[in-house]
Amino acid sequence: MSRNGPLALIFHTLFVIFMVAPIVVVCLVAFTPEGFLSMPTHTLSLRWFRAIGRYPEFVNAFWMSIGLGALSSTLCLLIAVPASLALARHEFPGKAGLSAFLLSPLMIPHVVLGIAFLRFFTQAGLSGTFPALLIAHVIVIFPFALRLTLSSATGMDRALEQAAVSLGASDWTVFRRVTLPLIMPGLISGWALAFIQSFDEVTMSIFLAAPGIETLPVRMFLYIQDNIDPLVTSVSASVIAITLLALVALNRMFGLERVLTGHSDRSR
Q1: Contact status, residue 1 vs residue 9, Cβ threshold 8 Å
Q2: How confident is the model over 40-67, as a mean pLDDT?
Q3: 27 assigned to some structural domain
Q4: pTM, whole model, 2 decimals?
Q5: Which pLDDT tens digit goes with each residue over 117-137?
């Protein structure tokens, strides 16, 4: 243990550096005063952060990603709650197959999904529309919402529901006043994780995006195809800053462990 301790610490430190270094480099490049990608050597500049205001496409794409992520994550929860309760509480023929089917988008490459969605929505006459993009995002991020919601539903103490029923509560009252609060950590973490996946999705979205319904990752991908200036790094740094602020807010309100895992470790 004493010999492995320092080695484990060194390994963890190197792993953290490996994961964080690209983010740090992107944030540093965003403050360069030069017109090309470079690390600031003499002075820091907000030139490329001010330049974001001259490109409303990025601002519009940001709000599109926020709205799309929030809506698709909410729709996922509306489906994940009854699905997770059914899978956690009941045994029925084909349960394992149904569970595998609901989680199957995790096993399919997003490039394949993008091509399949493009062909399907083109034949359905929905290609290049917001509903098509919304449906595709719901399908892709649904497993993330389901897994955390299912985790909370599986670990729930059903004796509390039975106690409420014995006191005369209706099914709706039991669900609203007992079941929903008990699985709320899973709902919050499932919604947050699904939102992150939707906001960050680019491989599949690029097949379905059209002018006016571009998400921020798609807009950034299209921009770097024709430009080599640091504007995208300033957009990335802004998103990173917003994400950090959101994580701090979630940590203050719920606790990051509760949000990310669906349960808290405080009882231990």
Answers
A1: no
A2: 88
A3: no
A4: 0.83
A5: 999 999 988 888 999 999 999
Domain CATH code at residue 230: 1.10.3720.10
The span from the CA of 233 to the CA of 26, in Å, is: 6
Residue 155's pLDDT is what? Answer: 78
Q: Whose CA is closest to 211, among 135, 128, 137, 133? A: 128
Question: In total, how many domains does the chain have?
Answer: 1
Answer whether residue 159 is part of any domain.
yes
- Phi, psi for residue 230 in degrees, rounded to 5: -80, 15
Domain that holds residue 223: 55-261
The larger pLDDT score, comparing residue 222 to residue 71, is at 71
Residue 161 predicted with pLDDT over 50: yes
Report the distance separating Cα 237 and Cα 134, nearest Å. 26
Q: How sure is the predictor about 4, in pLDDT bands with cuts at 50, 70 and 90? A: low
- Whether 41 maps to a domain, the answer reads no
Question: Would residue 142 count as lying in a domain?
Answer: yes
Q: What is the DSSP string of the chain?
A: -TTHHHHHHHHHHHHHHHHHHHHHHHHHHTT--SSSS---SS----HHHHGGGG-HHHHHHHHHHHHHHHHHHHHHHHHHHHHHHHHHH---TTHHHHHHHHHGGGGS-HHHHHHHHHHHHHHTT-TTSHHHHHHHHHHHHHHHHHHHHHHHHHT--THHHHHHHHTT--HHHHIIIIIHHHHHHHHHHHHHHHHHHHHH--TTHHHH--TT---HHHHHHHHHHH--STHHHHHHHHHHHHHHHHHHHHHHHT-HHHHHHSS-STT-
- The answer to whether 45 and 55 are in contact (CB under 8 A) is no
